[in-house]
Amino acid sequence: MNRVRLSFAVAGLAASAVLGTAIWPHARDAGVVLAARDDPAALADLRINAALRDNPALIADNIEAALASGDADLAASFVALAREKNIALDDSITKRVDDAIAEQATTMHFAKGFATGLVTGNADDVASLSGTVAGDLFVFGDIRDVVRESKHLAMGEDTDHLVLGLATAGLAVTAATYVSVGGAGPLRAGLTLVKDTRKAGRLSEGLIAWAGRSTREVVDGPALKEAVASGSVLRPAETASAIRAAFRAEKAGALVRVAKDVGRIGEAAGVRAARDTLKVAENPKELARAARIAEAKGGQTRAILKLLGRGALLLVAGTFNLTMWLFGALLALFGFLSSIKATTERATAWWLRRSKARRLQRQLAAAPVALAGAAVQG
């Protein structure tokens, strides 16, 4: 019976050890993720490291794909990520990336992009964003958008309330930019980026829904209609002042915070990184996390977003699931320690009983000899 109990204790010890060995890697990863859950840049590093362990050629493959699509900025982002991760790249690859960047940095290319952004209001790179922001700073870009959407609203046609609200807010921010001598520049650029991303149809569905609700609250519809009816593109200063009066600054706090975060991403990681973020982020909280990644990772941001997508802005799994892995590891550890205790106690008890039995046998064996010796002496 004692041996049976000891066997059960040893079996429990072995089972706990096997279970703990199986759970430990998951528990370790869960602990690291939970420790970094409030640091989006650290979380992104963990996931990128895991992806590179699974596929060491991941960065080189993405550089080739980016160059093939003509996106030198994305290719340069992957080169920056490779340097950060100490991954060696062929000299031929880095030279092709440098040549592509140099080509896109020519004066003619910049001038063409600036003109495109100024006229059309569409921004895809630094040059076109500079033109778009210039147009909005001179107010005709925002006035153009407000007048167009307001006419749709007045005629009962489909109206993009998001573009309307962003353009109206942009006019108010433009005035603040001039007053602060550029101090509101990132906010101005952020509003322009969100507006242009929406016009290009690249804004995520979650942000469209959120921003649509937010912008409806910041625009006084009747006041805006009156301002547009009495205004004229030929009198931009007067028209802008009238439209700004329809902007409810007290209700624009959330919208301003989003625009600031987008502006932070653009400043830290570039225009295209901001546009990529607006495609994957579903709410303001995710945009704020993306801004922290951009400020920590700079030029690597686009590569991180390309590899991880929205996962760069979220926990890999829910906090509950991660906590359960840790709890499972603690249970396995408790079972292992309990099994050690039970095995030690039962092994000790078995050894003591065996020692007592051996002593008793020796005593019984020695008893006849002692009795014989006593009889001889008598």
- Please state the overall shape, judged from the principal axes of the Cα atoms: elongated
Number of domains: 2
Q: Percent range for helical residues? A: over 70%
Number of E strands: 0
Poorly predicted residue ranges: 177-183
As a percent range, the share of strand residues is under 5%
* Largest sheet data: none
Number of helices: 18
One letter per element, helices H and strands E, the order comes to HHHHHHHHHHHHHHHHHH
Mean pLDDT: 74
SS class: mainly alpha
Q: Give me the Rg, rounded.
A: 35 Å
Distance between the termini: 46 Å
How would you characterize the overall build of this protein?
The protein is mainly alpha-helical and 378 residues long. It contains 18 helices and no strands. The longest helix has 59 residues, at 319-377. The model is unreliable at 177-183 (pLDDT under 50). Keywords: Membrane, Transmembrane, Transmembrane helix. The chain crosses the membrane at residues 312-337.
